[in-house]
């Protein structure tokens, strides 16, 4: 069964998410379920479009220490099929979107699934603690 595409080609909001994701070492885009997913080679670290009713959202894997606080933040929600393993969704449309914050969430999600070699490449590119530089 082929899933319908959730986004039009060249969608500017999806393109912005794409740029943030593909800036990470060895990140690749794979279409799955009619949506762009972003992977650290194989494991997913960002899934766009959590559902048909929330298309402009991303699902990310949270840091274990930050997860409880993020669950209490009204901007986050539990996405279908991702509950139970520190995955949360957040919308990325509207005028109040904090793209710096989304970039940090995306990088944190990447760090949760990346292998040591990829993490080492990321540390060389932007050492942790110095903030997102893109």
TrEMBL record:
Q: Which Pfam families match?
A: YjbR
Check the record and name the Gene3D superfamilies matching this protein.
3.90.1150.30
Entry superkingdom:
Bacteria
Q: Which SUPFAM superfamilies match?
A: YjbR-like
One annotated GO molecular function is:
DNA binding
Q: Which UniProt keywords apply?
A: DNA-binding
Q: What is this protein called?
A: Putative DNA-binding protein (MmcQ/YjbR family)
Lineage, broadest ranks: Bacteria, Bacillati, Actinomycetota, Actinomycetes, Micrococcales
